[in-house]
Amino acid sequence: QMSLLQKESIKIIAETAGVNNLSDEVASALAADVEYRIREITQEAIKFMRRSKREILTTDDINSALRLRNVEALYGHSSTDPIKFRRVMGTSDLFFVADKELDFNEVINAPLPPCPRDVSLSAHWMAIEGVQPAIRQNPTPSEITTSLNPPNKKQKINPTENAPAITNTTTNN
Questions:
Q1: I want to staple 137 with a disulfide (CB 3.0 to 4.6 A). Which of 24, 26, 124, 157 is the partner?
Q2: Across the strands, what pairs with 87?
């Protein structure tokens, strides 16, 4: 059986992974298996694309098909825009993705993005035995009234009207 994926390509990939002296039979068998798995993932991805009523296959479709097969998703390849391939001049079946050329000096001299803020976590009691304590993390009675009943231009705000009672109860044992 002839595979579209060449055994020489499998040998090169094996060498980059540290596997040297891969036999021709093993490389041919791996090429056929890899091609089968790629076709399987592609067919599942096309199903996701069609069910999403789209005509362009996206990396999200591929990732969904990989998750369906319990395979780790692709990292670094998420784009809403389709990739535009260009044909290499003088060939019929060789394509490439044209990358934007960057000036190295512009990249180096560009201002740094702002540092992300550290993650912080704080906890407080929203209510103790059904009573909301009057602490700065909890909203005040006027904020509660304003959020429940937005004021009209003609209506005056009365913070004590329809506000839930906030009592501070402490027990000494």
A1: 124
A2: 95
